[in-house]
Specification:
By secondary structure, this protein is α/β, with parallel strands linked by helices. The protein is built from seven helices and six strands; from the N terminus they run βαβααββαβαβαα. Strands 1, 2, 3, 4, 5 and 6 form a six-stranded mixed sheet that branches. The radius of gyration is 16 Å and the shape is globular. The relative contact order is 0.20.
Length: 190
């Protein structure tokens, strides 16, 4: 089983990466392969232009990280989007990436597990969490939860490493995701 973790932060090894790494370690301890794909820094086309070419070609007309992620997403059993909070909402690059990824992919996402991970300094995390989860709910993807909302606090990676509750939330999310992924696989098998 495999989980694709998207790092939507412009910082490759920043706060979002710390949270996703903690999640990935737990998934791997549960026997789930976890890949972190950093897309927040890449030079890519902005948002979806609703040209509809993806319906003809099976991929986004702008051939960049979205199409790379789409191939990995099609093979994965779960998708996690990690994004920092900018102005009380997800970083714009993460949103434009997710819009294009979900709009351009036509494969069945039903029963692929979804989760969002949010990083922030102090506020805006709840609204960001809500926005990111809508991609999953509109696609028939069960969402994994934790003991609290899937978020960590800190302005720097060092501060996130001090957020013991946030890191525990990531570990619980990993265990819950693994359980849900395995349960869905067992249900499909039966």
């Amino acid at each position: 089983m495999k989980a694709l973790l998207i790092n939507g932060s412009p910082h490759a090894k920043g706060c979002t990466y710390i949270a996703l790494s903690e999640l990935a370690k737990t998934l791997e301890a549960e026997g789930i392969e976890a890949e972190i794909l950093h897309v927040g820094h890449q030079d890519r086309r902005g948002g979806c232009i609703a040209c509809g070419k993806c319906r003809e070609t099976g991929k986004c007309v702008f051939d960049d990280a979205v199409n790379i992620a789409a191939e990995k997403f099609a093979q994965a059993d779960a998708l996690v989007i990690g994004a920092p909070v900018y102005y009380a909402s997800p970083a714009g690059g993460a949103i434009s990436f997710m819009d294009r990824l979900f709009y351009s992919t036509r494969f069945d996402k039903t029963m692929k597990v979804g989760a969002s991970v949010v990083t922030c300094r102090r506020g805006g995390n709840s609204s960001t969490f809500d926005v990111l989860n809508k991609y999953f709910s509109i696609s028939g993807m069960p969402m994994a939860s934790s003991q609290y909302w899937n978020m960590v606090y800190g302005c720097t990676p060092e501060e996130v490493l001090e957020d013991k509750e946030g890191l525990q939330t990531m570990r619980t999310l990993g265990r819950n995701m693994a359980f849900l992924m395995k349960s869905i696989a067992l249900g499909k098998e039966k």
